[in-house]
Each structure stands twice: as structure tokens, then as C-alpha cells.
User: What shape does this take?
Amino acid sequence: MRLRTFLVGLVLTCPALPTFATTLPTDWWKAPGSLAADDAQWRAKYLAQKEVANAFAAELQASQKSGKGMSYLDQGGASPSWYSPPLVVQPFPAKYSQKLYDLAYSAFLQSHNLNEAYRLAYTAVEQRPDDRLWRQRLIEVAGWLGQREEVLRQLHWLVEHGDAAAQEKAVSLALTLARPDIVIAMLAPAARARPLSDAQWKSLIYAYGELGEPERALRALDFALQHFGSRHYLLNQKAYLSYQMGDIETSLRALQRSAGHYGSSPSLAIDEAHLLSMQGNYRLAFAALERVRAQATLEDVPFWQLYAVLAWELHDNSAAFQAEKTLYLLGAANQYDLQRLVLLSGEKQPEAALAVALQGWKKYQLPLFYFEGLYYAATAKQWETLGGLLQAVEKSDPDGVRNFPAYWLAMGQWANARLDYRVAGFAYAQALKLNPEDTVAKNNLLWMLIDSGQVRTLRALLVGNTVQPEPGMRDAVLNALERLNLNRQALRLAATLPPAVPSERATRLLNQASLWGSVGQTGLAWALRRQAAWQSMQDLRVRDGGAR
Assistant: This one.
């Protein structure tokens, strides 16, 4: 049905709306961020972790800008305060004498002449390269003078000559000085000779990564798994490296092998589900999470987020709703979690959808949440909240929400609920001005005119539009014709209505009886009422399971 152009006459001056006031809803949605009475400890830990992570990120960013990171020698910029440039050493010319060198070294230390002590130890190592005592002394005094590169060289020599105790220190220092080549030289042969600890594997894999050689790390892992048996850490690292190299299938097999040997966990299930999702296997991904759902705790926020996304993708609305509600009540729901929760709760709990939409609007200031708030405030008949949302739009309207029919539809519903038909007419006219084909606005306008008794305007709107109204407009037009006492036209229109669903048959029959009675067909009206009564009895029997 096309409304006539004189709708412009309904555009009136809109009075001011009341100030924003929100009525707190009841039940679970009234207190977001409060899952249970004992979640305060979890929340404190969660927020503390976020603060630590943010502080670390800020420090890392500042370090990268200033060049004070682990690879400071290559980055340029200001060096760290602990860095000392390499000392230029002129060895002592005298031939080595154990008693003389020992006495001189003790004298230099007692007089705190560390530079000469360093020079002496350096000379002794050059003249007696196999003397471990002097190498230990050189390591000691070089450490006092900040000569870390020299310390690393000496530790590396000790490791190459069978000193296992020096290896951990050498690896740690090599990583600090960004020398992955030395880490690999020390650990790669050991990885083929014996099982390494998880810490050693971590250092070796990191060193290969620094050199851009993850395939060598994978070969080392495969060799260890083949010759020394399965290891939880190694399988997980193989999965990670394979994923980084784009080999999703190998990564997935490693994860599943790890889960088969050592059992799954929420974190492992998340990785497996991600890989399965990348292959398009959403049901298998969801099943991987479902297997460990009982193990997931409040701290497993990433688990609940992925669980919710996959449940939503698979149209398992019940599971998605429970997961999204958990995130909401933990205060950990992101923008997309809130969007899904609005849709999942809206049909059965419009008050809950309203509360979630309001939180999303407050947190993200996105028009999407604003319009959802308008819709569910009207659906839940929260008129004060709806009026407040309408009033919350600034005069300048920076988001342009007044350019959308939904804004004016909401205003029309709000005004209609307050029996302010003047403002309602203005709002519906604005909505139709923006979208002349908006069936909802047309319907709302007709019902408003019927309820308010504005017969003249109603009659004008219906001229030429009662024979074949749009399908979504038939009920409103039919009631408008009855309101105008155009009963014969109403009867003709009623005859074109599609068959009523079973639950509406009795009501449809009573309406038809009323129309026929109004045109003098009392007998037919009486027969239709009897048929409606019989239909009502049939409906009761169906609802009662045939007991009547």
C-alpha cells in the first residue's frame, strides 16, 4: 500500500524527550561482571594479568624504539647501561710462570686493578689454552668488567671440551647477546646424542627461529621423537612450528598425537579447534572443545570465546548462549560476543537483550548497539529507557542515527505508548519520508490512527489502497476499514486473506461473524460464531492431549 504524499502534513514540531533513565532489569543480566560470589579472586588475577601484559608491551615498544633490546648491537641507538665495549688487550710479553702469574693475579685482585688482572688472565689463556683454571679466572674477571662477549667465548670453549655445567650459563648468555649460532653449535649436537630438557629445546628452537631456519628445528624435533620417544613438549612444539610454516595437516596430527598420549586440555583443544576450523571442519573443531568443556575454568576466557563462535557457526544456539552468557557475566565479552548475545537472548528475553545492547553501546559507542537498544527497549516495553536512548542523541547527531528509519520508528512507539499521538504521527511520517516502502512504519501509523480515532486522516490514507494492500498490511487495513464502518469493503478484503493458522482460526471466524452481523447478515454471523465455538473446543482438546 502506498501512502499518499500529504503525509508531510503529519510532520509536526517534536517536543523534548525526558532525560535518560534506565530501569535495571532483573535476573542474570542485571549485574554483568558477577558470575558467582567467589569470582572476585579470579577477576583480580585477570585484571592483574592484563596490567602486566600492557606494561610489558609498553616496555617492549619503548625498547624497540630506543634500540635497547636483546639485539642492541644491530639496532643502533643508545646501548643499555650494562653494556661495556670490548677491551683492547696487549698480552704480557713475559713467558708464562705458574708461581709468578698466580702471585701477580692475587696482587692485582687485592689492589682492585681489574684491568691488569684481566690482561694477565687473557695472556695466560693464550699461552696455556688447555688450562681450565685460567679460563675460569678469565670468565670471572671478564664478568666483573662487563666483557660479556669474552665470557661467552670462554664458556663456549668449556662446553666444547666436555664441561656440562657450563652449558646452561653459555646458552643463557648467548641468547642475551643475540648469538643464536652459538646456541645451535652447543645444543644441536647434544640433541642428536641424548634427550634434552624442555628448557634446552626451547632455547634451540628459538635460536633456529632467530636465524630463520624453522625447518632445521623441525628436523631436530623429528629425530628426537623418533629416537628418544614421544614427549609432550616436543609434540606441541612440532605442532606450532608446522603451523608457522603453513603445514596445517602436520600440525594437527602432532596435536592429536599429543592429546592421545597425554590427554587434552582447554589450551590444547583451542589449538586443535583452530586448525580444524582452518580446514573448514567446524563440527570436529567444536567436538574437540566439547571433549574438554568440563575442564574449562573461569580463567579459560579464550576457550569460552572460541566455543561460543563455533557453536554460533553450527547454529547450536543453546551452547552459544551459555558460553556468551559466561563471558558476559565474567566481564570478558568483546564486541562480537555482545552482538551474538543480543541476538541469542532477544527472542525469549528482550529485557536481557536490552541490557546487553546498552552495555555494548556504553562500551563501544557503535550505532549497531544503539539501534538494538531501541528495538529491545520497545519490545520489552521499557519506555523510560527507550525515551532516554532517544534523548541521548546529541543535537549535532555525529553518528547520523536520525538518518535511519529505525530511530523514528522507535520514537513513534515511545510516543504511542505515552498516548502522545501528535509526536507519534510526526515520527512515523519521518520514517516514511526516509523509506516510503517501510511496511512496519505504515502498519504502525495505521494502528496509531485507529487507536487515536483520527478518522479523517485514516480515511484519507486508505483512499485507493484497500483493494489489494501489501501482504504485511492486510490486518491493519482490515481493522481500519472496520473502524471506518466500511464493512462491505472489509468483507471483500477478508475473503482474500490467506488461510489462518490453526491457533488463529477461531479469532478469524469471530471477526468475520462481526463483519457479517454489521451488514445485516445475522444468520450467517450466528453460524460463524457457532463454528468459532466448535473450533475453540477442538483447540482445547489438542492442547489437553485429547483428554476432553
Summary: The chain has 28 helices and no strands.
